[in-house]
Specification:
The structure is a single chain. This protein is of the alpha/beta class. It is built from eight helices and ten strands. It has a domain at 3-107 and 115-138 and 191-203: Rossmann fold, CATH 3.40.50.10420. The protein has helices spanning 3-22, 33-42, 56-61, 63-69, 83-90, 117-123, 142-161, 167-170, and strands at 26-30, 49-52, 73-74, 95-98, 102-104, 109-113, 128-134, 138-139, 185-189, 198-203. The strands form two sheets. It has a six-stranded parallel β-sheet, with helices on both faces. A four-stranded mixed β-sheet has the order 8-5-6-9, sandwiched between helices. Strand 5 and strand 6 form a beta hairpin.
Length: 209
């Protein structure tokens, strides 16, 4: 990565971390994926239960594989026949791994969900929520964060999961009411009333969508 882009990302992350702290959330900056993985694993208690929603960033980081190989109890909904049981188990997990569709420079996170298992777990349930977010997710303000979530993240995720929505044909949000829509619930996380629950690792470079 260009050294000036890396420097800019580090400076922007400082501002964002201050914003998160003002919202009772913890922020960390990793200059590369290796450091991000180290930080993430340090935040997961040995022997603890870990689960996740659909978090491409966690996979790209190698975090999911590291958790499976480590001294943790990974609740893998993809490997469980009873998907509902797996989703319900997430609410009592020690750590929930996720990402953000967008995050503002002052620490507000935006997420869109189809089944609501991810956004509901972010809002309530797991003892700790660990976000992995590439600096490509950072937006100047809430308005642009919402636009990014709807017009960048949502169409790409719709293509990824193979649903038949208008955005998979146009590449942009059509504000649809398609039976296949993945934009059913919108969650804006602007503050945490529970100290030590929400942790956000900002990673230099692009991760996820």
């Amino acid at each position: 990565m260009n050294e000036f882009i890396a420097k800019r990302n580090a400076l922007l992350a400082e501002k964002l971390i201050r914003g998160l702290q003002s919202r009772n959330m913890s922020g960390y900056y990793a200059p590369d994926s290796a450091e991000a993985l180290r930080i993430a694993l340090s935040l997961i208690p040995e022997g603890g239960s870990v689960t996740m929603g659909g978090a491409t960033s966690a996979h790209e980081l190698g975090l999911v594989e590291a958790v499976k190989a480590g001294n943790f109890r990974f609740i893998d909904r993809d490997a469980m026949e009873d998907k509902r049981a797996a989703m319900l188990a997430a609410y009592d997990a020690d750590v929930f791994l996720t990402s953000a569709n967008a995050i503002t420079e002052d620490g507000i996170m935006v997420n869109i969900d189809g089944n609501a298992n991810r956004v509901s777990a972010i809002a309530q349930g797991p003892k700790k929520v660990l976000f992995i977010a590439g600096m490509n997710k950072v937006c100047p303000d809430l308005d642009t964060a919402m636009k990014r979530a709807r017009n960048v993240a949502a169409p790409i995720n719709a293509l990824r999961v193979g649903v038949n929505t208008p955005c998979t044909k146009t590449g942009a949000c059509m504000d649809c009411k398609s039976p296949d829509t993945i934009c059913c619930q919108f969650l804006i996380t602007r503050f945490s009333r529970h100290p030590g629950r929400i942790h956000v690792i900002l990673v230099n470079g692009d991760l996820g969508f």
